[in-house]
Amino acid sequence: MNKVMLMGRLTNDPEVRYSQEENAAAVARFTLAVNRRDGNADFIQIVAFGKLAETIEKYLSKGRRVLIAGRIQTGSYTNRDGQKVYTVDVIADEMEFADGKKADNAANPVPTPAHTDNDIPAATPGFMNIPDGIDEEMLPFN
Question: Hey, is 102 helix, strand or coil?
Answer without folding.
Answer: helix
